[in-house]
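Follow-up to my post from last week.
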Amino acid sequence: MTDQTLKMFVFLSDLLNRRVVTPYGQSLGKVHDFKIVLGELFPRVSAVCVKKLTERQIRILDWREVETINGNLLKTKGAQPALLPTLEVKEQEILLREEILDKQVVDTFGAKIERVNDIHLLMTDGELRVVHVDVGLRGIFRRLGWSKLVDGATNWLFSYQIPERLISWKFVQPLAEDPVRKTLKLNVTQRNMGEINPSDLADILEELDHQKRRAVFGSLELETAAEALEEVVPQMQSQLLDNLKRERVADIVEEMAPDEAVDLLSRLSEDKQVRILEEIAREKREVLEKLLMHPEGKAGSIMTTEFVTLNQKLTVAEALEQIRRDFSELEVIYYVYVVDKLSHLIGVLSLRELLLANPSATLEELMFRAVKKVKVSDSKKKVLNLFRKYDFVVVPVVDKDNVVKGTITLKDAIQAAIPEFKKKR
Amino acid sequence: MILERLARSKLLQTRWRQLIIFLTVMGPGIITSNVDNDAGGITTYSLAGAHFGYAFIWALIPIAIALILVQEMSARMGVVTGKGLADLIREKFGVKITFYLLMALFLTNLGNTISEFAGVAASLEIVHVSRYVSVPLAAFLVWLLVVKFNYKAVEKVFLVASAFYISYILTGFMVKPEWGAVRGGFLNPQVRLDATHLAMLVALVGTTIAPWMQFYLQSAIVEKNVKLENYKHSRLDVIIGSFTVNIVAFFIILVCAATLYKHGIRIQTASDAALALEPLTKNYATYLFAFGLLNASLFAASILPLSTAYVICEGLGWEDGVNKTFAQAPGFYGLYTLLIFLGAVAVLFPKLHLVPVMYFSQVINGILLPVILIFILFVINDRKVMGSYVNSKFYNISILTLIALIGLCSILLIITGI
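User reply:
Got it. Predicted complex:
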């Protein structure tokens, strides 16, 4: 564009259907769509899609060929070929009207799905950039051509104007799919979706239609996918995994907390279970297989195998060092379990006590000896009663030789007792 | 021997599996169809029976087929795309067309809701309950059901309500119809082209295939999250539903034909029919009939506003769902509440005549239906949306014929109405 200093905001709905003309007055058709290239924070329009009334074919005009957008016209710089090249959309390109306008997008900041009523563009330095999507009522009225009427009415009646609801493009993840890879065309980076809280992400997944759901799930990083999978309703878990490659399913299951992974696996057919387990690294697989063997309804079937055990002879400083070294993978640490040299459970310390204690004191001096614990074969009911009676959030699970095999959190216990607690419907 | 038994048990197992899958998928089709037998429907069927005897029962067969054809499309779109009809129309046609379409749907469904509350009022006036008591109470109950409970609970209540339609079938046997004449009604269909017969036929079609059903059915199927491989179960659900509507309709016509028509009693409403049954049958037929009307009206009075609120929120991209709270989805609950409120209040106006209200709501139904069907055809034949599940040519021709017929009927209805 020639006028390099011009800066102005404009809505996509205002630009569509303008007539495209050359400086010599030749009409090339109407503005049908805009193509942008993803990757930048506020992506640039790279081309204008032009359509003639008499033609089915959509043709393309490079943005560098655009001189001005004025009145109802879009003027090109010079003469154009009688037939512009036909439209092609590459991997990292998106059509604004076809794939964003009137479609659903994920607002990664507000962590929900919104429907796009309009797109807000900024004309600056001769470039047209996407800056916001409009998801508000105002956008709807603008497109209906009622803006003035509604503003007049609300002003007169309530001295009020319906506010704009704009979402910055950097928080917008379009749901347009890459036709070949069947994953989303990602805005900015993959981080975007990963920053959504897993349970919000699960809500988003549940709300989407199955095709979009698959595409979104397929685009998530492993860790995010595993966390989201833990949160979705059980029926949807297996559905999400159904269409994935076995290796990816195994990778995701491997990322999940062991108790959640076992929950998931135990709902699958034996056949599927075996095939997924085959793909999982040996160490983790053995853990899962052991957990899977515990009969339903017993403490062993709801426990997780992530916990910290430390030798009684260690000093506090050594203990903290060992936690940093060996247990950094654990999702949460509430307590450390103190064991003798034969791994028998002899005491417990909360992380708080450990942090506040004198670094040279040994664990056996500090530990609380009367540990409340359950056996692997104890019933779920017994576990629940223990939680009801005592004020702690995690209970250790031991085998018949008093060796720690796992832990049960209060949340696990509640989920086991009240299945509805997990499901939202 | 053992192998044979094993094979048989395997077969039995797969049959059981199929049945269980069907039971989980079942619901949307049957519920939608039964809501279809609402206050307006029952009135129309009663009129058909009372004024024309068995002359119209043949029409129930083509109506059932048309109903299956139309609803199957909605079920298919729901299963294949996982999206509601308003979603699909918005994505294909943009906000402008969608908005005006939704406004038309809102007005139509408001008309229908009014006629449901009129049904509640009429049925309880038979047992001498004033409408100033029954209607506010019914409105409150219906409102509470959705605002306070989740979808699964609501669906269960609806399925139970569907079962109550059996009261019409019971009444049908109580009045001892002449089965010979019934057979004659099916085997020798009389098609007369005079104004009164045509208007009746139009009303029958119009009341059985209504525009809101397409939206509701599709959304309910999406909510169920039916897998593509279980689509055949959804289709069966739709087929069973479509037949039950027509079986219930058949018995209502039967009751009125065997009693009122035989004695030459003219009626104007369904509650007229219930009252007129009293001296003729000397049994509980009146109360059964009235109970059926109450159940149907209540049932539809909760589903219609619900489906309307869903559809509008879906199309405009607002938060929706019975599983959300008022604060999370103000637009959804606001619309739902508004529809119930307006519907109930309208009935309480002393000067309002209920018969023209019902008639008017059927007329706008009839005008909107062909429009919606045309939109459905555009969407369902789009390969980008439906993939290989687009309509066959034969299917398209059948639906186009149906659109033409309904369009013609609606025009006739307006003309005869004036």
